[in-house]
């Protein structure tokens, strides 16, 4: 047998599995998105884009990602740096930081709902402190900004750890000697971070950012719990088309649209954070 | 002015003591070589001077300033790492320029220094490459160039030429010595190559199991080893040792030969002589020839003396054959004596 064929043969079962349980349903969805009443059409996309809610959902989703992901990135880098510096108790710190990872997004949304609700922790706290005399409607339909902030907070709380875990693993791969050399040649801790950690962490940064951006485009349960329909996002709108408006074809078109922008951003980050082969560790 | 003073520095890793109370002064502009077998603590000592390792005890002074609490970048040093530590994400040019950029030198100055040191290390044609595209020896030269480009007061080099071929090493050795002398740099240079040590050093500090056994000029270390270890470690082939028994006060018998020696209350001490310091003649140490190796300029003869090995370097025209009984006469002024218990010179 040719040695070169072996890896492909070994990958066959996994590939078959993917084809059956992923590509096939995907093809079905794509088919539904491009057909209506048995004929090929782009009408579903037209209907989707023509809805007054569409631009709002796109804007909300992108805005949410654009705010949440950079904040998470900075926080994850900070936390990962701290965790990596620990000499003892490193895994304990990692576990504690990673607790929110074990909570489903809906549960996370509910936890933050319990905080921001009219009878929630925040109101109780503020009234006990005498700051307010009656409960504030933080998540009412007029307070779009507070809803947005609450969703952003919940998302940051929920999904920063996943980035941190990836970055901690990546930092562990950077040999100490590079930091020592940089230190000897005059780099302050900040310069070492900029000149050594960040560039050598690029592969992990790439993974973490892509993963997080895709997850951000798919945000759903947290928004549903905290904002209901007051903060329409792409996933919520897909759900809406499928189950409220009972239009599977437009829902499929919507799903394809989300997939397209996810792929677009993935390609973008793959390109921007590419490490030339010769410059790898 | 960059004198380095190491005062009673010790280093323990858990229960293991890598360095036992080291005292060493490297005077301004001196070229000090740390020489010793693998694992004797050379790198550890160098890293303590650099500030990459904290001493368990003791003080380090550089240029009259106590530095053991300062981070490496405040010590005015540059270093060549044993494992090179050439940054993989930077080109050779940017690697050499790294420290200069940290000092915020103007671009013109950076260009000048990088090109000059790259030329010196014969890597000027590699400036655009990445570390992953270099051979081990090329990477090592980048590490040396990066340190030289800093033009520091103190340079610490951990086996900087270990990965080069013999010819290139010879050339680089001479270049390094010239450059460092011209720039008046104080140097600590780690090696376990004794020829390199002898040829470069103003002084050699011979290390053994976490201690400095002797720190002296190369000739002194070679001629007058302060301890048995120094004699057996330096010189190729190394010094010969034969037990000596007391016959009278200040008189010792060595393999059938009676010699005047140090006064001691001990009954046996050790006689030592370098292989080149014996002559074959009618009188001397009783030796049976085991191996004869003609080396061109001279002949290396390995003999049996009192059940131990004894090597002698004889003139190449000496007619010796395996099985011959020789009388090897030691040159009186080259004989050294060691205490078998403390292993120190008597
Ligand atoms: N971080 C460490 N933890 C535990 N032991 C260490 C550590 N670093 C060094 N050692 C031990 O200290 C001793 C001295 O090590 P060092 O690296 O200084 O040797 P060296 O003289 O440079 O040897 P070589 O010539 O092989 O480079 C060795 O026995 C080594 O195992
Ligand atoms: Mg070493």
State the helicity of chain B in percent bands: 10-25%
Low-confidence stretches of chain B: none
Radius of gyration of chain A: 23 Å
Distance between the termini of chain B: 37 Å
Features of this protein?
heterodimer; A: 281 residues; mainly alpha; MetI-like fold; 13 helices; 2 strands; B: 346 residues; alpha+beta; Rossmann fold; OB fold (Dihydrolipoamide Acetyltransferase, E2P); 8 helices; binds adenosine-5'-triphosphate; binds magnesium ion
Task: Give your account of this protein's structure.
The complex is a heterodimer of chains A (281) and B (346). Chain A is built from 13 helices and two strands, in the order H-E-E-H-H-H-H-H-H-H-H-H-H-H-H. The model of chain A has no long low-confidence stretch (mean pLDDT 88). In chain A, strand 1 and strand 2 (39-40) form a beta hairpin. Chain A has helices at 5-33, 43-50, 53-85, 90-98, 105-116, 121-128, 144-172, 176-184, 189-200, 202-217, 221-227, 234-244, 248-272, and strands at residues 35-36, 39-40. In chain A, strands 1-2 form a two-stranded antiparallel sheet. The longest helix of chain A has 33 residues, at 53-85. Chain A has 281 residues and is mostly helical. Chain A is 74% helix and 1% strand. With 346 residues, chain B is of the alpha+beta class. Chain B contains eight helices and 19 strands. Chain B has helices at 42-50, 92-102, 107-120, 136-149, 166-182, 194-200, 218-223, 228-233; strands at residues 4-13, 16-26, 31-36, 57-62, 65-66, 77-80, 154-158, 186-191, 203-208, 211-216, 240-248, 251-254, 257-260, 268-273, 278-294, 298-305, 308-315, 325-330, 336-338. Chain B is elongated and about 75 Å long. Chains A and B meet through helix 8 and helix 9 of A and strand 6 and helix 2 of B. The complex binds adenosine-5'-triphosphate and magnesium ion. Adenosine-5'-triphosphate binds at residues 13, 16, 18, 36, 38-44, 82, 192 of chain B.
